[in-house]
Amino acid sequence: MSQNQDHLYKDLISIEIRNTCSGILPREAVRGSSVKVAGRDVLATWKLLVALVVTPTLYGFYTFIVVLISFKFFAPISTFCILVTGSYVTIRLYESGIDIYKSIHPLFLSLLPWAKSSKKLRTVREQLSTDITNLINESAPQIYHDLMLKE
User: Fold this and answer.
1) Looking at the keywords, is Cell membrane present (predicted)?
2) 75 is in which domain, residue-wise?
3) pLDDT tens, position by position, for the chain (151 residues)?
4) Is the Cα torsion angle 52, 55, 61, 64 positive or negative in sign?
5) Which of 34, 43, 100, 103 has a 20 to 30 A CA-CA distance from 141?
6) Into how many domains does the chain fold?
């Protein structure tokens, strides 16, 4: 097994914890709050907590196993450094890889010559942007009286 695959398998535990809770926690936050719409802040906080707590705990455990198996002076230190570096690379590649994977299907559909839905979507987005800008320009002075004074 290659070194990269080792890091991927070691990081699968933290990735699986993040993915499992990333679907559950935002739904609970939205359900329990009258203000939240999507719960993205809960998702970002949870991913940060997993990255800051679970990952170093796992690396400490892995380093402890290396100490038990073969105790050489620099083996635990080098193992810990390699694990941390490998984890950072794996997490970065996983996050960007998932984003790329999710964007391939719409990109492929937009490149098809018979896909007119992308042109229609662009015109709808432009019209929506214009409508929202007009609504804000009309409603903002009525809602925020200070806006007229500043201008």
Assistant:
1) no
2) 3-115
3) 445 455 555 566 666 666 666 666 666 766 666 655 555 666 677 777 777 777 778 777 877 777 777 766 666 777 778 877 877 888 788 878 888 888 888 777 777 776 666 677 788 889 999 999 998 888 877 777 665 555 5
4) negative
5) 34
6) 2
Instruction: Quote the CA–CA distance of 25 and 44 in Å, as a whole number.
Output: 10
Per DSSP, the residues of 34-89 read: SS-SS-HHHHHHHHHHIIIIIHHHHHHHHHHHHHHH---SSHHHHHHHHHHHHHHH
Kindly state whether residues 85 and 143 are assigned to the same domain: no
Residues 121 and 103 in one domain: no
Length of the chain: 151
Sign of the dihedral defined by the CA atoms of residues 136, 137, 139, 144, in that order: positive
Distance CA 58, CA 79 (A): 12
Amino acid occupying residue 85: T
Which tokens in the block code for residue 17? 């914890």
Taking a C-beta distance cutoff of 8 angstroms, is the pair 87, 55 a contact?
Answer: yes
Other Cβ atoms less than 10 A from the Cβ of 42: the count is 19
